[in-house]
Amino acid sequence: MALHLHTSPAPHALCNLLLSLSAAGDLPRGQQLHAHLLKSGHTPSSSPSSPLFILSTHLITLYSRCSLPLLSLRAFLDLPSPTSSSWSALISSLSRNSLPSLALLTFRRMLAAGLPPCDRTLPSAAKSLATISDPSASAALHSLALKSSLSPYNVFAASSLLDMYAKCGRLADARQLFDEIPERNVVSWSALIYGYAQFAGLEHEALHLFRAALQPGGCGVNDFTLSCIVRVCAAATLLELGSQVHSLCFKTAYDVSPFVGSSLVSLYSKCGLVDNAYQVFHEMPERNLGAWNAVLMASAQHGHSSLAFNRFQEMQRLCPHSPNFITFLCLLTVCSHAGLVSEGRHYFSLMSNYGIEPNSEHYAAMVDILGRAGKLKEAIATIESMPVTPTESVWGALLTGCRLHGDMETAAYAADKVFDLGCEGSGAHMLLVNAYATAGRYAEAAEARKAMRDRGVRKETGLSWLELDQGKVHTFVSGDRSHSRMEEIYGVLEEVGKKMEAMGYVADTSWVGRDVDGEEKRRSVGYHSERLAIGLGLLAVAPPRPIRVMKNLRVCGDCHNAIKYLTKCTGRTVILRDNRRFHRFENGICSCGDYW
């Protein structure tokens, strides 16, 4: 609808109208009003003291909220004498619309013009520094805030600095500033919780702060705080605690937030309850791009390929945002887990239609799709076509395909490429060792182990864990004897093992990486960490509840086959998450279709 102004309204009426259009994000009528203001001579006002001058600042905000920061800049440049409010509106526009470098340049120009920072300009500068993750510049901004008396006593400025430090990975500085703020608000608490939540191994610190924020001395929580804590629970697969936080979200009405909702989808998916994840998604009143990506990844992790593709089509119809690089990474992961080569090629090429350049993660996924399907030559050609240097994950994907299809020469070539990158992890080394061992080439496997030791690389310990009632997590390693119920665990596994053998199960000892006698090989594979965790689940998890086990490494072929037999002879359901995907074992069948 066109905007009709038959008379020249008073300045305050024009301001109110422009504010309304800005709040609604009504760009067409906002631009009509801008044109009217220019034609009528109301803008740009030559005097900062004029009541019409504020219209120019509102125009900067209008274009900011319509995601047109360069038009905000144009409106700013029309001003003969920008004020502090004008600079603040422009810096905020550039910062919130993904132009952090330009926002910082504008902030520096403001300082050069003799205007000091304030509690409106400093947070935008801090946000921009957090986006580009510049630790040295973040300290300089903090110093400027101290000189300007904005930190730590101005809670808005100090909280933005705290958030900046947390997102730049400077947790010690973030914690020190947090302790210095005399009156913290919910942003202060949320920023520090986020800082701890994003680093592995610091989840308990994040949870401790979260509990403190809920106490009478704290400041409560908001949707950002809750989404951070839900992500912590998802990363650590703490289902019981995550469910309690979900209840809190419901009680505080924050469950309607798309940020909280997308985190809850990830929580239930990563804890193996994908139907709960789908239910949360369906009940979300508002879905942002993160929510769509979360549900796509849930479908990918659980092998629901058809559902994922249908969901992507639904997203294209209903989601106002275009797919991003994460969306296509989810789709390529779906194709990798299901062995869908042509579909993988389709989605890889479709990225260009949305102006997305594939990064190393997309190439790794595409190489994984081709390698697992045995198309190793095409996988190598894909690597050679990369516009950037292939990363460890790309060569690792090729190495995995070589192991699956017994191509030892290409496996050694891929492993050498990984070693040339100077990677210190044990992943590529163990893939090469296992590839040789699976092919029965134990001498080469031993040499690969020796090379690994000579480089000072230690094999990552295989761990499996499950969460029982009251949220207690029980962790096992292969051949573990430390659990208080270990005698019962070994007893139930031996009892079930006899039933499995009666049904036709035979241990596949080719998964043992050393050339030892057959009996020792059978004992080695028989008490892998995931089997011990399942043994405890048989004792402690009442049917019909599924036994949910998490594992940090890929499940071996023998354990995968054994768990199928176990579910068939016990009637139990086992949900196992390894480092690649989820496996739902039920009645002797795995949801992965033996393709993993």
How would you describe this protein?
- With 596 residues, the protein is mainly alpha-helical.
- It is built from 30 helices and six strands.
- The protein has helices spanning 11-24, 27-40, 53-65, 69-77, 84-96, 100-112, 121-132, 135-147, 155-167, 171-180, 186-197, 203-214, 223-235, 239-251, 258-270, 274-283, 289-301, 305-318, 325-338, 341-350, 360-372, 376-384, 392-405, 408-420, 427-438, 442-454, 486-502, 518-526, 529-540, 557-570, and strands at residues 464-467, 473-476, 547-551, 574-577, 582-586, 589-590.
- A six-stranded mixed β-sheet has the order 2-1-3-4-5-6, with helices on one face.
- Strand 1 (464-467) and strand 2 form a beta hairpin.
- Helix 5 (84-96) runs parallel beside helix 7 (121-132), helix 12 runs antiparallel to helix 13 and helix 15 runs antiparallel to helix 16.
- The longest helix has 17 residues, at 486-502.
- It is elongated.
- The mean pLDDT is 90.
- PPR repeats lie at residues 83-117, 154-188, 257-291, 324-358.
- Keywords: Repeat.
- Residues 504-596 form the DYW domain.
- It comes from Dendrobium thyrsiflorum.
- This is DYW domain-containing protein.
List the helices and strands and how they pair.
Layout (H helix, E strand, L loop, with lengths): L10 H14 L2 H14 L12 H13 L3 H9 L6 H13 L3 H13 L8 H12 L2 H13 L7 H13 L3 H10 L5 H12 L5 H12 L8 H13 L3 H13 L6 H13 L3 H10 L5 H13 L3 H14 L6 H14 L2 H10 L9 H13 L3 H9 L7 H14 L2 H13 L6 H12 L3 H13 L9 E4 L5 E4 L9 H17 L15 H9 L2 H12 L6 E5 L5 H14 L3 E4 L4 E5 L2 E2 L6
Parallel strand pairs: 3-4
Antiparallel strand pairs: 1-2, 1-3, 4-5, 5-6
Helix pairs in contact: 1-3, 3-4, 3-5, 4-5, 5-6, 5-7, 6-7, 7-8, 7-9, 8-9, 9-10, 9-11, 10-11, 11-12, 11-13, 12-13, 13-14, 13-15, 14-15, 15-16, 15-17, 16-17, 17-18, 17-19, 18-19, 19-20, 19-21, 20-21, 21-22, 21-23, 22-23, 23-24, 23-25, 24-25, 25-26, 27-29, 27-30
